[in-house]
Write a structure and sequence with these properties.
By secondary structure, the chain is α+β, with helices and mostly antiparallel strands. It has helices at 35-44, 160-163, 192-200, 271-274, 290-306; strands spanning 2-7, 11-15, 53-57, 59-65, 69-77, 81-82, 85-86, 92-95, 100-105, 108-116, 150-152, 177-183, 203-205, 213-217, 228-233, 238-240, 248-250, 257-260, 262-266, 282-287. It is 14% helix and 32% strand. Strands 12-19-16-17-14-13-20 form a 7-stranded mixed beta barrel. Strands 7-6-9-4-1-11 form a 6-stranded antiparallel sheet, with no helix packed on it. A 5-stranded antiparallel sheet has the order 2-3-10-5-8. The two termini are 27 Å apart.
């Protein structure tokens, strides 16, 4: 089965859970920005964890399938349509050969995940099908999709009868976005005033933001004596503060190391709602302890297991 791109989205790429094991060689992990929506999309069409999907940003475009297949949309609501008729988010559909799928501008959120039965079948590079835009590697020719591209899909893992009743909970993406963080490894580089500014202020996602990182606009964070450090590893969600004093949240396509002090790190369970923020949305940071973050994470994992997810 294949999917032909008729109208490309603003930025639509092939992504999976990420490319791990190569950061010591300077290769970014890439992968989906919103792991929660990604997993839900695969579950809806009966795919095992790890299958590749399409990640569409802000605007999704149009595509056509040449054989019967399953499809589901999760994450940001781009008001999907199948053959010009409205389709729901967070549920599976059975497409027929020749059907078209359209996604418009986001109604809420920033990124939509489109899963097909069997997953997107592109070559595995260093253990992943994810697109690394910075290195032009992986995914579909290492780039965002454009008109005329034809993507192959794998063999479906489930029939429509097996998945037709599946549903995922719709998410609300609003602003301001409140994200919980733990103290960063170089918190001592910032003055008490700087920390008060960071935790007490409201920041705005800059239009200079991308999959590599969200640049935040707001009051500069005061340091004790500058924020340059000997470069060290960068985790997904690390918040570094350059000389400007304005924080940058490092995301899926982040560099593997960085030379600016990190004031905090976004908790993994709040990254999905953070990355559904778009330029102009506001963000507030709430400090919690490592122990509290562990309890919340364990509680969420337990809830998922109880729901069979």
């Amino acid at each position: 089965m294949s999917v032909k791109v008729i109208i490309p989205g603003a930025l639509t790429t092939v992504q999976d859970a990420g490319r791990y094991g190569y950061q010591n060689s300077g290769i970014q992990t890439s992968g989906v920005m919103d792991q929660k929506a990604y997993k839900q999309a695969n579950e809806l069409v009966g795919n095992p964890a790890g299958e590749a999907v399409l990640e569409a940003t802000l605007f999704g475009g149009m595509m056509e399938v040449d054989e019967d297949t399953l499809i589901a949309f999760t994450g940001a609501d781009m008001e999907p349509q199948i053959n010009g008729k409205a389709a729901e988010m967070n549920r599976p559909y059975l497409l027929q050969a020749g059907d078209t799928v359209s996604l418009g501008m986001v109604k809420s959120g920033c990124r939509t995940y489109i899963a097909f039965g069997g997953g997107i079948d592109v070559p595995i590079v260093m253990g992943s099908r994810s697109t690394n835009l910075k290195c032009a590697m992986g995914g579909y020719e290492g780039r965002a999709l454009k008109a005329g591209d034809v993507l192959k899909t794998g063999t479906p893992h489930a029939s429509f009868e097996e998945v037709k009743e599946r549903r995922a909970k719709a998410e609300f993406y609003g602003s301001p976005i409140e994200v919980r963080v733990i103290e960063g490894p170089q918190a001592e580089y910032f003055s008490d005033k700087g920390k008060e500014t960071f935790y007490g202020g409201t920041y705005t996602i800059s239009d200079q933001s991308d999959r590599m990182g969200y640049r935040m606009e707001g009051e500069p964070i005061e340091s004790v004596n500058g924020t340059d450090i000997i470069s060290d590893g960068i985790a997904f969600g690390a918040i570094q503060v350059p000389a400007s004093g304005k924080p940058i949240i490092l995301l899926a396509d982040r560099q593997t190391t960085g030379g600016y002090a990190k004031i905090a790190v976004v908790c993994s369970f709040d990254i999905p709602k953070l990355v559904q923020g778009k330029p102009g949305d506001q963000v507030r940071f709430v400090k919690i302890s490592v122990e509290e973050a562990q309890r919340i994470n364990e509680s969420q994992q337990t809830d998922c297991m109880k729901r069979g997810k």
